[in-house]
Design a protein that fits this description.
single chain; about 400 residues; alpha/beta; six-stranded mixed β-sheet; 16 helices; Bact_Solute-Bind_Prot2; Substrate-binding domain-containing protein; SBP_2_dom; Peripla_BP_I; signal
């Protein structure tokens, strides 16, 4: 399922594990064949501009939608795409950036695994005169942020509104009557996860939720560690009525809902996963938060407009992507219709007409502010409206 989504949520350097905590990266030239990206693809739309995309996967729930959305946009805009897919460590990502620059791309969109990857990407792109943007990422380190944002070839970044989403998850659960939580925090070594932790903590305080116990999600994404912690909670806290989890990827949510069956304890989780509709129907899932794949579409649009000579800002752009909240099997089914395993329906929502509004040449009012306004429309209600429901 989402075998690497914790990567999407992490800004720490990855070494041995999926969410490692070591710092520093080796030069891209030291890349070995064992770490090479698993998939390199070209989408030739006959355009005179090419944008490279560095992403961790195209087969999990998030990556597959990102892949579909970017390709839909590229076709609508007549821009070629070079995909570098599968890099799960810093060195591989930097090698992918180097490969794309050597291949003559005009722009690069990347989901960097660490601020140091962003820093080195910036240095390479500035030297080569290649525009670049970040998807699913802010820049946490102040020194690196100042360096990167001063680069005239840095277009901007899109990243999730994690604090707001985490707090809203707690509110939805509390409004449904769940007040005693076992909380799964993501690694405190990951700077970006501080927003989620703060959202959980502020939400519990604001909405009267009692934190009965807590655990830290395994840095390796090992679902067995999560299950062992929750089993201990079930034994020790008979009044616990929900598991509030910062991550449900890599099989953790699937395993958790199986464990919670017939216990009366609900799962409230960040990350969509396989089997959500069944989990809602059997009463083990209260809230699932995810659906942030369009983030990459808007980062791609930022980069494309700069490459096309119609940048959306004189400076860099910083936009936030909202989440989708699913609270019932019916909502889940609707969402899965357009963003599930059959991605042929993505174009029903993100039509060519809609995609063309993300191009400055077609939409004179498009700038950093109006782009954020477009992104803010994203919700289940917006999806239904797009379909005329």
């Amino acid at each position: 399922m989402k075998k690497a989504l914790l990567l999407v949520l992490a800004l720490s350097v990855m070494a041995v594990s999926m969410l490692g905590g070591c710092s520093g990266t080796a030069p891209a030239s030291s890349q070995t064949t064992e770490n090479a990206a698993e998939d390199v693809e070209n989408l030739d739309n006959g355009g005179d501009k090419t944008i490279g995309v560095v992403f961790y996967s195209k087969t999990d729930a998030l990556g597959s939608v990102v892949y579909a959305l970017v390709n839909e946009a590229a076709k609508a805009w007549g821009v070629n795409v070079k995909w570098e897919i599968g890099g799960l460590d810093n060195d591989t990502q930097l090698n992918s950036v180097q490969n794309l620059i050597s291949g003559g791309v005009d722009g690069i969109v990347i989901i960097p695994l660490a601020d140091t990857v962003t820093q080195k990407t910036s240095e390479m792109c500035e030297k080569a005169g290649v525009y670049f943007s970040l998807c699913f990422r802010d820049i946490i380190d102040d020194t690196i942020r100042q360096q990167v944002t001063a680069n005239p070839y840095f277009v901007g970044m899109t990243f999730e509104a994690d604090y707001d989403a985490a707090k809203e998850m707690v509110k939805i659960a509390a409004d449904a009557g769940h007040k005693n939580a076992g909380v799964g925090y993501n690694s405190p070594t990951v700077p970006f996860e501080k927003q989620v932790t703060a959202g959980f903590n502020d939400g519990m305080e604001a909405y009267g939720v009692n934190k009965m116990a807590e655990y830290t999600v395994s840095d390796t994404g090992d679902a067995n560690v999560t299950i062992s912690n929750i089993e201990n909670f079930l034994d020790a806290y008979p009044d616990m009525d929900m598991i509030l989890s910062g991550a449900g990827s890599q099989g953790m949510a699937e395993a958790t809902v199986q464990l919670l069956a017939n216990t009366g304890v609900k799962l409230v989780t960040r990350d969509f996963f396989t089997g959500m509709e069944d989990a809602f129907n059997n009463g083990t899932l209260a809230v699932a938060c995810g659906g942030m794949a369009p983030d990459a579409l808007y980062s791609f649009a930022m980069c494309y407009n700069a490459v096309a000579g119609t940048p959306l800002s004189d400076s860099y752009i910083c936009c936030q992507q909202k989440y989708i909240f699913l609270t019932s099997a019916e909502e889940c089914k609707t969402f899965e219709t357009y963003f599930g395993s059959d991605l042929s329906h993505v174009g029903d929502i993100y039509t060519e007409e809609y995609l063309n509004t993300l191009v400055k040449a077609n939409n004179e009012s498009l700038n950093a502010e109006t782009l954020q306004q477009i992104m803010d429309e994203y919700s289940m209600e917006w999806i239904l409206k797009q379909k005329g429901v």
